[in-house]
Amino acid sequence: MRRVRYILTVCIAIMAAVMMPASGRALDNGLAKTPPMGWNSWNKFGCKGLNEKVVRETADTMVSSGMKDAGYQFVILDDCWQTGRDASGNIVADAERFPSGIKALADYVHSKGLKFGIYTDAGAMTCAKRLGSIGHEYQDAKQYANWGVDYLKEDWCNTLPGQNSESSYTLMRNALADSGRAIVFSICEWGSTKPWLWAGSIGNLWRATGDIQDCWDCKKDWGGNGVTQIIDQMNGLETYAGPGHWNDPDMLEVGNGGMTKEESRAHFSMWALFSAPLLAGNDISNMTADTKEILLNKEVIAIDQDPLGRQGRRVKKTGDQEIWSKQLKDGSRAVVLLNRGPAATKIAVSWTDIGYPDSLPASVRNLWTANDLGKQNGSYSADVPSHGAVMLTIKP
Fold first, then answer.
1. What are the residue ranges of helices labelled H in the chain?
2. Is 155 a known active-site residue?
3. Is the CA virtual torsion 261, 264, 268, 270 positive or negative?
């Protein structure tokens, strides 16, 4: 009987969210006008490695390494920070892993000039079988606000049969709006119900793809994707993204060891071209020089953070050779020459590929070598390594 009552309560709450007038449903929280940047615990630490010490060290390193100055803001706890609920139904943190409590941890992150994020699930349990938020959306949102949370990621595991994603995420959006605190809302249903068609008025970002894996070209039976699979899933979604609402191709795998330096550079280049959230997923307290070079490239980050907020698109594909272009606010273009093949090759971009006339002289700059390549007319070509990318700006 208790379970029947619980399910009825959830259903009524979801119906109320759906039936809310359109004027009350529009997302206008003023947040994430450029794609969020920060760090998320999952890709490196998963469930077993997450604890208060790791999070504090990450916040410290985000400042000392220059990541904060480069634009990284959010320190986000993913799954496994919670253990259950107290007698009043309030979500409870794992006291063993987080002995100081979540508010004290958020306060520490804030003391570094950073922002704090946390994780929940729209179902009865999270993906790691911790308690989700279903039936407690308003209560949890109030708790997060009281703790000083600035960013909420809501997953889509262990949902009820027939549970509707748009309705469920609308309910949490309304709860966050009622919490009294400005909280970026990240929808994570893995692109399974085409969120780009409905999430623009609900979340600040939504997962447009399956989960990323630390590999260049792979596909897991359960839905995990390598970088190239995610690149293909993102193509064609560019019209749905913009300031305050972004397609999310999942967190970065740079620095986790599964890809070469060239593959990692290409991965970072493409995420910047996509205007994707740049959420580092590595152990930033122990970064190699190559990892720092990639994550701290301010010119590539500037492409991601361009205030026009356009998502780049593929403009040409010839076998494993691809050309991607993104319009920038000043009228110039960011261009990625992407080589998915097994051998180095020369790739040429024509001005007509990116919306310029052939006769137009334009300045070309390589963002990874930080070299100005002079005025070019009509086209530019570069040698691109296997599984690598050359990232350019082309400016008339």
1. 2-19, 22-25, 42-45, 52-64, 67-70, 102-111, 137-147, 165-177, 227-234, 261-273, 289-295, 298-304
2. yes
3. positive
Query: What six digits make up the tokens of 277?
Result: 């959230």
d(CA 273, CA 310): 9
pLDDT digits 0-9 by tens, 164-178: 999 999 999 999 999
Query: What is the distance between the alpha carbons of residues 91 and 97, in angstroms, rounded to a whole number?
Result: 15
Check if the beta carbon of residue 255 is closer than 8 Å to that of residue 291: yes
Q: Three-state secondary structure along 305-351? A: CCCCCCCCEEEEEECCEEEEEEECCCCCEEEEEEECCCCCEEEEEEH
- Mean pLDDT estimate for the chain: 94
Residue of 155, 214, 248, 283 with catalytic role: 155
**DSSP label at 141?**
H
- How many Å apart are CA 282 and CA 395, to the nearest integer? 34
Q: Which residues are bridge partners to 245 per DSSP?
A: 242
Cα Rg of the chain (Å, integer): 21
**Residue 152 pLDDT greater than 90, yes or no:** yes
Query: pTM above the 0.90 mark?
Result: yes
Q: Could you write out the DSSP letters of every residue in 272-312?
A: HHTT--EEE-S-GGG--HHHHHHHT-HHHHHHHT-TT-PPP
Q: How far is CA 162 from CA 12, 166, 172, in A?
A: 14, 12, 18
Residue 240 has pLDDT above 90, yes or no: yes
Catalytic residue, candidates 79, 140, 150, 211: 211
Candidates 336, 382, 333, 379; CA nearest to 360 is: 379
Q: What angle do CA 203, 205, 209 make, to 5 degrees?
A: 120
Q: Is 211 a catalytic residue?
A: yes
